[in-house]
Each structure stands twice: as structure tokens, then as C-alpha cells.
Amino acid sequence: MDDNQLELQKIRAEIDIIDEQIQTLISDRAKLACKTAQLKKSLDMDASCFRPEREADILRRVISRNQGPLGGKEMARLFREIMSACLALETPLTVSYLGPEGTFTETAVLKHFGLSVNTRPVTGISDIFRNVEEGLAHYGVVPVENSIEGAVTHTLDEFFNTSLQICGEVELPIHHHLLSSNNTIANIERVYAHPQALAQCRKWLDTHLGSSCERLPIHSNGEAAQRAVNELNCAAIAGDRAQKIYNLQCLASHIEDNPRNTTRFLIIGTQKITPSGNDKTSLLISGPNRPGLLYGLLRPLAENKISMTHLESRPSRCGQLWEYIFFIDLEGHQDSSNMVDALPELKKQASFFKLLGSYPKAVL
What pTM value is reported for the model? Predict the structure, then answer.
């Protein structure tokens, strides 16, 4: 045996020792997680074991202390799965999302909560809210905006009537593939996809399939993939997970017109989230249509040096014609000193004011 083979054997032996140490430490962490949950129950504290603000803080610290060679976010994803598995020992979470299996919303669920979560697919965004409100799921994940196509208006409208809080956010890069049970693109006569997916791939579809190929909007890309399994000469626009679940051929990959295509999702639940150190606050506000309305509503934010990261308007469903409700994202937590000063002043200016929650900014 030459020196290189001896060195290889030595390295493998060292890896085996480290693997045993990692396994022991993960088991120790899981025991402590269970003990923490039991202590909280004995002290009559909030029994919820999932604390978004603490998990966000842990993941940020993982990234900040990482020294490679694995990237910071890759290391954080490993810790996300460890935390997910530990949490499932004591309080398995159920999360509702826009189904069926294989949608980007499901991918967002697994990115945020890890693979040990229980998932509950539903057929519409309103059903996600209803599942959480009725206690059928601990949390829901809903799309709120896409970097190309803008706001998901159905989600914004649901926030008007719900008592749920926003507990977190997920940012997911969106890469679309043309999937089919066919082996060639030449025979494709129909393409199924969510309307936003069709819009995000418009130029590619025009160039490669032309106007003769029918484009059929459907409520989710997961359902589109199901159609592609069962129908001849059709294709679906969907992602990697849908391809694996439904065992489809990938006729073309990364067909989105903009490679930086990203969708932001919100986590909805019943918890009020305490500060994590790097947070956002979302709210709905409105007022009677008058000159300077928006300026008056936003002035307290500027005076208290609060940065607004997103502003979206929706027609008011219960006001006068041409009155609008504004969905606003702010940097910072509602309990911070400048927010405590600004929000009451903003509320005075508004005829309608609803705080949707403060929550950690997306980490991964």
C-alpha cells in the first residue's frame, strides 16, 4: 500500500470519528430541546416550542461564525434541519400551503421549517388562512409578491379580515422548467401553469413554442405537473420538486425570462413575535381620498427615521369608490422606540389601521 492510500485510510478514519461526535452532539441537543419544552410546560409558560425569532437568531449566528469551507447559508441549512428534527420530537408542526405537492409554496415551507414538518396542502390561498384560523394547521405559508410580476393580490386581500399575525418571511429564487411525460418538445400542444408562471416565462414561450401552443392557466404549478403526467402532448411549467415527485421529463430548464426571479412568502400564525434583532413590521392603513393623504400617512415614519421597504395599494372593499388600502412593510420591530413613537401618530392620520405583525427578516 503506497503513501497516498495510507493517507486516504487515515482521513477516512478521522471522518468516522467526527461523524460519531456529530451524532452524539445532535442527540444531546435533541435531549435539551425536549427538556426545554417540559420546563416551559411546568412553568405554565407559552407551550409553543417554535420561536421564529430565536431560530432566526441562531441561524444568523451560524452564518456569522462560519469559517468555511462550506458556505454560510449552506451551513445554516444544515442547522435548520437539525432544529426541525429536534422540534418534531416534542411538537410536530403542521403547516398549510397552496397544493398539491410540488408547488413553489411547498418548497418555501420546507425551506423555512425544514423537512421534519407536517404539511397540509389546500386548493386556495383563502383555505390556508382558514386552516390556521380553525386550528387545523399551526402555520400557513402564502405568496405575497414576485420580483417580476409584483403583488399577489389575493393574499393582500385576505389580510383585511383575518385576525392572524405575520410570523416570518421566506425568499425563494424561482427557476421554472418545462416538464412533460413526452420525450421531445416538438409534440407539445398545451402548456399548463399558474398565471404568474406563464407571465414569468412569456418570452421563452413565444420564442420556443410560439402562438400555436395553447397556454392554459391553472391554480398551481403542482396541479400543472399532475396534468402533464396524465395528458398526452402537454407540458407543465414547474420546479425541481415537481419534476422529482411526478417523475417527469425536463424538456427545458430555467425558462424564466429573468434569472433573478424571486418570490417572497409570508408565514401566518397566531403568535406575536418578539424582537430578533433584524425585523420587519407589516400593516394595513387607509384614509378618505383627499390631497396629501399618503404624505400624511407616511410622515410619522419619515420623522422617526423608519425605512419603508414595500408599499402596495388595493381598492377598499368597504369604502367609497376610488378609496384604497395600503399594505406597507417597514424595517424594524413594533416594540422598538421609534416604532412606538411613529405608529400611534400614523394611526391618528388613518381612518383604518391594522398592525399585521412584526417578524424576523428572511435569513436563508
Answer: 0.92
